[in-house]
Amino acid sequence: MTRVVFVLVPSLHLLDLAGPAQVFSTAADLGHAYPLHYVADDADVPTAQGVRLHAGVDWPDLTPADLVVVPGWRSPRLSGRPPLSRRALDRLRAHHTAGGTVASVCSGADVLGRAGLLDGRRCTTHHELQDELARRYPRAHVVRDVLFVEDGRVVTSAGIASGIDLALHLVAGGHGPAVAARVARAMVVYARRNGDESQASAMLRHRAHLDDAVHRVQDLIDARFTEPLPLAALAAAAGCSERTVTRLFGRATGLTPLRYQQLLRLERAENLIGRGVTVEAAARAVGFGDARMLRRLRARG
After folding, report:
1. What's CA 282's distance to the chain center, in Å?
2. Sequential pLDDT tens for the chain (301 residues)
3. Boundaries of every domain in the chain
């Protein structure tokens, strides 16, 4: 179980908050516990969109497994009055020091900077605020034109909707990309994970479509990619003929079902090999009869 604590500041953007909250809530609906908490310096929190929110003023007891998220707020500049009290900043810093993860959306990176959590780390924020963030925290390395950056249990994301990508990334890290893909599908959003480096898994990279029949086929392959999967079984999952499922799958993903399954096997095998497993053992673990096919796929790149 991961408790998610949202730290609310005056004039926060609703989507900065609601996007990640919806991701974790949907993951909970799928059986992965993410209790949500909302705290603020003052119980009454005005938002940039005019809705007033009510939050607790007492933080829950946190463990290293928990996540603290600071949504962004409406501000043309980062400078000015600190958006959070020194007490709240101390709580943020203490949570990270104890081994916990902290995250921000958009201008929320300024709060992490005020807490001293950006020093020596890569980070990002909304493109209109990147220059100011770099000036304000010269010991931070501001990465530009990315959706999110993770460095030392400090996760920062760009503006507004990128909080969804950040949250999907964290769900994928905790429960695997298949769960993140299911969350994205339930939310009817593209399952993106293109952060500061190539970290888009095959499961998520090829989910950027809205074809429900193809999603059902991918759900089956994701769950059983180490097994032989006859085209007839995939067609049954899609509710159409074998010829039609091949055509729909190719149109939605640019791949055949077999090639998609091979990519999942290859990705998992590379992960095992990176952890010290031999090529032969990795090949068997992902469903290949021997290592020859795995070696061919690795050579193909």
Report:
1. 26
2. 899 999 999 999 999 999 999 999 999 999 999 999 999 999 999 999 999 999 999 999 999 999 999 999 987 677 666 789 999 999 999 999 999 999 999 999 999 999 999 999 999 999 889 999 999 999 999 998 788 899 999 999 998 888 999 999 899 888 877 888 889 888 988 655 455 433 346 776 787 788 889 999 998 998 899 999 999 999 999 999 999 999 999 999 999 999 999 999 998 888 788 768 899 999 999 999 889 999 999 998 6
3. 4-179, 210-300
Catalytic residues: 106
End-to-end Cα separation, the chain, in angstroms: 37
Kindly report the pTM of this predicted structure: 0.72
CATH of 210-300, one of 1.10.8.60, 2.30.38.10, 3.40.30.10, 1.10.10.60: 1.10.10.60
* 4-179 CATH pick, 3.40.50.880, 3.40.190.10, 3.20.20.80, 3.90.1680.10: 3.40.50.880
Beta bridge partners of 6: 38, 69
